[in-house]
Amino acid sequence: METRINDFIRAEFGKSLDNFQRMAADDGLREQIGQAVAICVGALREGRKILFAGNGGSAADAQHWAGELVSRFYYDRPGLPAIALTTDTSILTAIGNDYGYDYTFARQIEALGQKGDVFVAISTSGRSKNILRALDACEEKGVRVIGFTGATGGDMVDRCEVCFRVPSTETPRIQEGHEFIGHLLCALIESEVFPK
């Protein structure tokens, strides 16, 4: 049993390292990160906000990144306006009950989104129906979209101004890549809006 566990651990480390090495070597990814930072910083400087949403582990990422912006990342500075659309159980259950689960994020964007806001849409498959409906609402409201998906991009890739496609088809590897890119965005947004 111990050998099997050790082999599994080594294999998982290997897959994660390979994933990050491919990301690190991707010049296009670095360009996309710069584009996403510029979109977010531009919106914040215009008095707009950043909205985040995802399902499951991606919902945790949405809450995590919103918290990093509202509170702080590397250092103390004024809070930045960011909202995770995954946190209000009364809103989520009301929308799910009245309109269906597919509308959980779209309805919130209809209510809270303003032209020039940024929506960070997180779906490892790129096919989450409630994320895709949220993209419909973004188009109607003039909300800009930054997407986080896996290698294929699913149905999101052509609907996002910037779409981060982590080069894996395994959900854990995609989520690890998302977390790293999300941290880069938070750090760079913080340092651009409030230079130390």
From TrEMBL:
Its EC number is 5.3.1.28. The keyword Glycoprotein does not apply. Keywords: Carbohydrate metabolism, Cytoplasm, Isomerase, Metal-binding, Zinc. Its main location: cytoplasm. PROSITE patterns: SIS (PS51464). It catalyses: 2 D-sedoheptulose 7-phosphate = D-glycero-alpha-D-manno-heptose 7-phosphate + D-glycero-beta-D-manno-heptose 7-phosphate. Pfam families: SIS_2 (PF13580). Zn(2+) binds at residues 64, 68, 175, 183. Binds 1 zinc ion per subunit. InterPro entries: GmhA/DiaA (IPR035461), Phosphoheptose_Isoase (IPR004515), SIS_dom (IPR001347), SIS_dom_sf (IPR046348), SIS_GmhA/DiaA_subfam (IPR050099). GO terms for molecular function: isomerase activity. Residues 40-196 form the SIS domain. The keyword Zinc applies. It is found in: Cytoplasm. Substrate binds at residues 55-57, 68, 97-98, 123-125, 128, 175. PANTHER family: DNAA INITIATOR-ASSOCIATING PROTEIN DIAA, SEDOHEPTULOSE 7-PHOSPHATE ISOMERASE / DNAA INITIATOR-ASSOCIATING FACTOR FOR REPLICATION INITIATION. Catalyzes the isomerization of sedoheptulose 7-phosphate in D-glycero-D-manno-heptose 7-phosphate. The reaction produces a racemic mixture of D-glycero-alpha-D-manno-heptose 7-phosphate and D-glycero-beta-D-manno-heptose 7-phosphate. Homotetramer. Belongs to the SIS family. GmhA subfamily. This is Phosphoheptose isomerase. It comes from Lysobacter panacisoli. The gene is gmhA2.
